[in-house]
Amino acid sequence: MFGLERMRALHAVATQGSVAAAAATLHVTPSGVSQQLAKLEREAGQTLLEPHGRGVRLTKAGQVLAGHAERILAQVAEAKADLELLREDVFGPLRVGAIPTTVHALLPPALTALSTQHPGLVVTLHEGEAEQTIPRVVSGELDVAVVESWADRPTEIPPSATGIPLFADVADLALPAGHRLAHRKAVDLGELDDVAWIAWSAGSGCYEWLTQVLREQRLEPRISCTVGSYPTQLALVAGGIGAALVPRLARDRLPDGVRILTTRPALNRTIFAICRAGEENLGAVRACLDALRAASARFEPAGAR
């Protein structure tokens, strides 16, 4: 009786709170969502939306039908997953996005395992920050994204996506060897009122995280360099250009002239895999998540040196 795409549109409005937000989540135009809802109202024979301020809200009938829509969409996703479990071979395209530190450390063993275990998969890897890759997962441009979520600046996972924790990591302070605090093993970040900072590109999540961390310690960030590479950041620290906060996952080798100190407070993050909600058990996605979990289990972040 009710079209699946129309039920999907109603569910999106119910969860997102407006037609515009629902359209953004579904990656269609607001008029497209409105057209689907108008058709659904004709099918239902009842009014599902009513004006509310400058927007709309669900009527009682709309709320009832939205509850059914949620269950129907969950059942459709479960049916797809059950069918995928019948496949013996995993094949076809798999599009993965990942933050730079995991591209360097986590993805090579995971992708090697995928190519060995599932030679029919055609994998493409795209480097990008969470603010770039999560919307692409939601829109269907990527199947899986590997992202970070800092304890003091959590990454928001939209309702249409699922986050799977992989492992924990810590960021430490990288100081030039000649700095007055470089002999320490640990340091209060609030003591660092005499250094310039090396950050990622302005506007990136990493840049915003650094400035937030410093301002929470009542330090006004003085950014001297913006560089999208932790090895390059460490090279600049070695040259005495400034200090940096570097995750342990990103540290293979320290250049001469750099000292690593743990911080107070500790700077913790969790590495997540993100996929569309309900697709965790679909063939290629499931294989990718299994490979990422296996690679994460073998990974032990380097200790502070």
Could you explain how this protein is built, in words?
The strands form 3 sheets. Strands 3, 4, 5, 6, 7, 10, 11 and 12 form an 8-stranded mixed β-sheet that branches. A two-stranded antiparallel ribbon has the order 1-2. The model is unreliable at 301-305 (pLDDT under 50). The chain has 305 residues and is of the alpha/beta class. It has 10 helices and 12 strands. 41% of the residues lie in helices and 25% in strands. The protein is globular and about 75 Å long. It has helices spanning 4-16, 19-26, 30-44, 60-85, 100-105, 107-117, 130-139, 205-216, 230-238, 283-298; strands at residues 49-52, 55-58, 92-98, 121-127, 144-150, 161-176, 186-188, 197-199, 223-226, 244-247, 258-264, 267-276. Helix 1 packs across helix 3, helix 2 crosses helix 3 (30-44) and helix 6 packs across helix 10. Strand 8 (197-199), helix 8 (205-216) and strand 9 (223-226) form a beta-alpha-beta unit.
